[in-house]
Specification:
The structure is a single chain. By secondary structure, the chain is of the alpha+beta class. A hairpin with a 6-residue loop joins strand 3 and strand 4. It starts with a strand and ends with a strand.
Length: 157
């Protein structure tokens, strides 16, 4: 049960469990050392839920029994594609888009290098298609709409 009391120095209203009565604490507001007072009728905080008529009402619930398994109400999410591919050992189609703006580092355009590395990693026999793409984005420096390019790779992996 909780009780409410005030700091003798700054009059800040505080709350503590009745079991903490007699303990010495520092006021969180002013830092003054004080002893938590003993509980009495004036400082006990009544719990409105336990005092309500609903809390005193007795309920008897029964658990439903079914002859067969019930349907799942929450569907389990599918594993990420990389995990699913490793699990069955079967290669599935994958798509990877590489934008040129994501390949520019400190003024150096590494687009060709990054695409070449990915193609080498995938392997020529697993590549299904390579499609050029163009897209627009807002340049953060100039705040203008810019058009740029990239590639979309479809591969088995």
């Amino acid at each position: 049960m909780d009780m409410i009391f005030s700091c003798p120095s700054c009059k800040q209203q505080l709350e503590a469990e009745t079991s903490m009565a007699g303990n010495e604490i520092a006021c969180p507001s002013c830092g003054a050392t004080m002893v938590i007072p003993e509980p009495n009728v004036q400082n006990i905080r009544a719990d409105p839920i336990s005092a309500s008529a609903g809390a005193k009402e007795e309920h008897h619930f029964s658990v439903p029994v079914h002859d067969k398994p019930t349907e799942a109400l929450i569907k389990k999410t599918s594993p990420p594609l990389e995990v699913a591919a490793r699990a069955d050992g079967e290669k599935r189609l994958r798509v990877k888009c590489i934008r040129r703006t994501d390949c520019v580092e400190v003024g150096h355009d590494r687009f060709d290098e990054i695409v070449s590395d990915l193609l080498e990693k995938i392997g020529e026999k697993n590549i299904v298609s390579i499609t050029p793409i163009s897209y627009t984005h807002v340049d953060l420096g100039s705040r203008q709409l810019m058009t740029d390019f990239g590639v979309m790779l479809v591969y088995k992996g």
